[in-house]
Amino acid sequence: MKKSILLLLVLTSVSTTFYAQRFITKTGHIFFYSEAPMETIEAHNKQVNAALDIKTGDMVFKVLMKSFIFEKALMQEHFNENYVESDKFPNATFKGKVTNLEEIDFSKAGKYPARVEGTLTIHGKSNPAKATGKFVVGDDMIHSSSKFNIEIADYDISIPGAVTGKISEEIEITVDVKLKEYKK
User: Fold this and answer.
1) For the residues 84-102, what does the mean pLDDT come to?
2) Could you tell me the CATH number of the domain that includes residue 147?
3) Cα–Cα distance, 148 to 156 (Å, whole number)
4) 127 belongs to a structural domain
């Protein structure tokens, strides 16, 4: 009986430790910006799911493409119907790892540079991706931010001839998420 109670206490503390290593959000923010001579395009998405395992450095993001909001409704319609084909490819994802995990002390408040590598999938096309950014560790959260560029051709997103030159072939993406400790 005593062994059973001891085993139960050990398993409970191990599972609590495991979950305390995960930080998540469902309200992250991704912003993209494209500037070309004829048109500046920007959109915000504040329904970004993200998770970080501070023990392994595993990091994942999932973004519903239809949740990007544009200033002009027509841009939003063209983005979803003609460019990223949101009905066919509803999500963009990133699966990767913090590569400088040994330089970050998630148990101590402060700002830490971060390097992340993984696979970015947009429009059904996956490519290796690298980004630098930072983690700001606080008492009950981890604020993660980064800015990087992608080439839309790398994701099989084509620009119709009628708008060539109006839309940049490179998009700047800004990621800003506040991750809270996952409690089961």
Assistant:
1) 97
2) 2.40.128.110
3) 19
4) yes
